[in-house]
Amino acid sequence: MLTPAIPANEAERLATLHSLNILDTPPEERFDLITVYAASLFNVPITVISLVDAHRNWHKSMHGISMSEAPRGLGFSGHAILQKSIFEISDTREDVRFADNPLVLGPPNVRFYAGYPLTMKNGHCVGTLCLIDTMPKRLSEWEREHLATLAAMVEAELQGEDGGLLPGELVGLS
Length: 174
Fold this sequence. Notes:
Elements: H1 10-19, H2 29-42, E1 46-52, E2 56-63, E3 69-71, H3 77-80, E4 87-89, H4 102-105, E5 112-119, E6 125-133, H5 141-158
Antiparallel strand pairs: 1-2, 1-6, 2-3, 4-5, 5-6
Helix pairs in contact: 2-5
């Protein structure tokens, strides 16, 4: 098992993550709706919004698993935050970085992983929106586009963006 590298901008990345004031907060419907929808849309048993702290991957929202965090060196998100786009492992058992990972060899028996980096406006990646399956698979181009869209929704929620609408205002109505 290969542990992920630490980003060169780790101090600034962690400062960005901590400025969100979201670590160790209770589940929230606005995030849970996204993970439940992603599980259905991509036909995967597990979806997670994972935030990568100094020593752990903490799960703000999870569908299909009950573990609320994993050691940073064990999880997949530490690798994914080093990317600018989707980090996809079609079959973890055939990837030297993950073949002997306890999360692959035992519960939750990860065989497929796709994580989209959650990048804040200042350019720092704080975590991932993850798709996990117990069988190998590969995302289609359509699925890759939709994962990017859902990740953008998570990013907006993390940053408190409302799309520019005033409360109660609907597009096209005056």
